[in-house]
From TrEMBL:
Segments passing through the bilayer: none
Pfam family for this entry, one: ROK
InterPro entries named in the record: ATPase_NBD, ROK, Tscrpt_reg_IclR_N, WH-like_DNA-bd_sf, WH_DNA-bd_sf
Native source species: Streptomyces spororaveus
Family: Belongs to the ROK (NagC/XylR) family.
This protein's name: Transcriptional regulator
Entry-linked PANTHER family: BIFUNCTIONAL UDP-N-ACETYLGLUCOSAMINE 2-EPIMERASE_N-ACETYLMANNOSAMINE KINASE (PTHR18964:SF149), ROK (REPRESSOR, ORF, KINASE) FAMILY (PTHR18964)
Length: 384
């Protein structure tokens, strides 16, 4: 019932519209003749589709080139209106909220951050999200009702509807209906994803994994996590828990990362990034206890990553998170992967740094809009 077939005019119109719109988005300001050549459709079909897209506000007639004006009446040119809507990418972290704003082409036109306490409640943290978004939209002069989609990267195991099934990194996060709460604020589609997954998507889009379809992003920290792409598609696992390497210590290795990095015998607080940075700084200065602590931590990290690499056989491992900028992470990881793995992958540092999660969240929003506009093929982050 209601199934569309190849002979259904509504399906044909939708496909033709998607094909023409995609060509318009990538070709600059093509003429009808250009679009006919690029799409393989007949000129009357292209002309009808373009007029329909103009009516929706997604396409506008472009200004004629000055040189063409002097030569006589120029051919009509058209362009995709990237300003017809806007997208947001949001990172919700333990110490900060980061927000990116783009047009419908995914090009960033604004960014902002807000600090937040690691002890903030879920309500307080979400209020900081709203404040960061409101501030960015105000500075960019973008009305809230122009938002077409919002992507969010959050710690924890995230279900398809945006509920955080398990989130120990943030107070009050486990069981939080994050997607539902945010949809009340934005009144547009909100895509919520695990932060390491979002970072993996970002590195594939704009970072170190742009030419790699099989990759793992490792978010190094006291609660390490990983996101992965298989065959160019984000791999979440059956329940969204793929890549939770921070739980590997439960498999008979009870010593947690925060205890491994301790120089006093008392475990560090999992969210105390300043204390972690201090241990690494002490190690660089030659403090024996700190050197031993860092070596213990790195050994655990590389073992955790090696377990994931053995299971997935990626071409590339990208290391990000707070540990990515600290000396001594990449080379031990390369050496250990060569030792443990049958086919060691390449290892690279994140090219996006602390912008990775928000960038991946923006890509989630862009993918949602592209599925709506182009609706011919699934995107890299589409949920199955």
């Amino acid at each position: 019932m209601g199934q569309l077939t190849g002979g259904d005019p509504s399906l044909l119109r939708r496909i033709n519209s998607a094909v023409v719109l995609r060509a318009l988005r990538t070709a600059g300001s093509p003429t009808l003749t250009d679009l006919t050549r690029l799409t393989g459709l007949s000129r009357p079909t292209v002309e009808g589709v373009v007029e329909g897209l103009i009516a929706t506000g997604l396409v506008v007639e472009a200004d004629a080139e000055e040189g063409a004006r002097r030569q006589g009446r120029p051919a009509r040119r058209f362009r995709f209106r990237t300003e017809a809507g806007h997208l947001l990418g949001i990172e919700i972290g333990s110490h900060r909220i980061a927000v990116l704003l783009s047009g419908l082409d995914g090009r960033v036109i604004g960014a902002g951050t807000k600090d937040v306490s690691e002890t903030a409640s879920a309500d307080e943290r979400l209020e900081r999200v709203r404040a960061a978004v409101a501030d960015l939209l105000r500075r960019a002069g973008v009305p809230r009702d122009s938002l077409r989609a919002v992507g969010v990267g959050s710690p924890g195991i995230v279900e398809a509807d945006g509920t955080v099934r398990l989130g120990t990194a943030l107070p009050g996060w486990t069981g939080l209906p994050l997607g539902e709460r945010l949809r009340r604020s934005f009144r547009c589609p909100v895509q919520v994803e695990n932060d390491a997954n979002a970072a993996a998507v970002a590195e594939h889009w704009k970072g170190a994994a742009r030419d790699t379809g099989d990759m793992v992003f490792v978010m190094a920290g006291l609660s390490p996590g990983a996101g992965s792409l298989i065959g160019g598609r984000l791999h979440r696992g059956f329940g969204g828990a793929a890549g939770e390497i921070g739980a590997l210590h439960l498999l008979g290795r009870e010593v947690t990362p925060e205890r491994l990095l301790s120089t006093t015998g008392e475990p560090l607080h999992p969210l105390d990034e300043a204390a972690v940075a201090e241990v690494f700084a002490m190690a660089e200065r030659g403090d024996e206890r700190a050197v031993a602590a860092v070596e213990r931590f790195l050994q655990r990290l590389v073992h955790d990553v090696a377990a994931l690499v053995l299971a997935m056989d990626p071409e590339l491992v990208v290391v990000g998170g707070w540990a990515a900028g600290l000396d001594g992470v990449l080379e031990p990881l390369r050496q250990e992967l060569e030792r443990y793995c049958l086919r060691p992958p390449r290892v690279a540092q994140s090219m996006l740094g602390e912008a990775a999660v928000a960038t991946g969240a923006l890509r989630l929003a862009l993918d949602h809009v592209e599925e709506e506009l182009f609706a011919v093929e699934k995107t890299v982050t589409a949920r199955r």
